[in-house]
Amino acid sequence: MKLDDVSTDLEEVLLTEPQIHDRIAELAREIERDYADEPPLLVGVLKGAVMVMSDLARELSIPVEMDWMAVSSYGSGTQSSGVVRILKDLDTDLNGRRVLIVEDIIDSGLTLSWLHANLQSRGAKSVEILALLRKPDAAKVAVDVRYVGFEIPNKFVVGYGLDYAERYRNLRGVGVLAPHVYA
Ligand code: IMP
Ligand code: MG
Fold first, then answer.
1. Do 90 and 68 form a contact (C-beta atoms < 8 A)?
2. Among 28, 70, 126, 175, which has the highest number of CB atoms less than 10 A from its own CB?
3. What's the pLDDT at 142?
4. Which-ligand-closest: CA of 110?
5. CA 125 – ligand 1 centroid, Å
6. Structural domain spans, the chain
């Protein structure tokens, strides 16, 4: 879907498809340099990271492996508690591997903080994080995100993998959801 296809559901367009594409290309150049000696294992966090994983992996000129995890954080409503349950685990042995976690967004940072520690504890040589979007609250948690696509305001956004009630994931850009949609 194009942003125009759901324009009445959006309060504001934050990122267009070309903007996302250009930024992912920049991040890919950094990753190619940083992992020139040893290709990373990309770990995508389902379902939100599907689009960024797919575009990033194809943009990279170095070989990578891809694996996936699905996690759910315990907590009431929209508030993340930091207690995380693994719904789908990796198939890959991380021992001695250089891991790059690929995420759609870092909000409270609690999910990624837990995930980073969990993957590190499996004997990975290094665990770095890429997040396409970062909200201001992420600064409150000590989670080191090596690659950030865009800093965005503290608003609920959808598109490019991000959903509201499983909708809008297939939107090509990112927009702020209009209040009338969830009111
Ligand atoms: P946190 O960083 O532990 O608070 O959780 C981040 C997760 O919450 C992300 O992976 C998303 O699944 C979800 N999330 C946070 N902010 C948004 C948003 O604005 N739109 C859609 N999902 C979001
Ligand atoms: Mg997510």
1. yes
2. 175
3. 80
4. 1
5. 27
6. 18-154
Exposed/middle/buried for 106, CB within 10 Å: 0-12, 13-18, 19+?
Answer: buried
* β-bridge mates for residue 65, sequence order: 41
Q: Which of 87, 105, 112 to mutate to test the pocket of ligand 1 (most atoms within 8 A of CB)?
A: 105
CB 14 near ligand 1, within 6 Å: no
Atom of ligand 1 nearest to the CA of 73: 3
- Clarify whether 107 is annotated catalytic: yes
Question: 70-94: per-residue pLDDT in tens?
Answer: 998 765 555 566 678 999 999 999 9
- Cα 101–30–120 angle (5° rounding)? 25
Say what the pTM is.
0.94
For residue 152, give both structure tokens. 């965005």
CB 131 within 8 A of CB 162: no
The CATH number assigned to the domain with range 18-154 reads 3.40.50.2020
Task: Please give the single-letter amino acid code of residue 148.
Answer: V
Predicted confidence (pLDDT) per residue in 132-174, tens digit: 999 988 777 888 999 999 999 999 999 999 999 999 999 999 9
Question: Residue holding tokens 């995100």?
Answer: 145
* DSSP helix/strand/coil, 85: strand
| Residue whose entry in the numeric block shows the structure tokens 């000590």 | 142
Reading the block at residue 87, the tokens are 């719904």
42 half-sphere exposure, CB direction, 13 A CA radius = 25
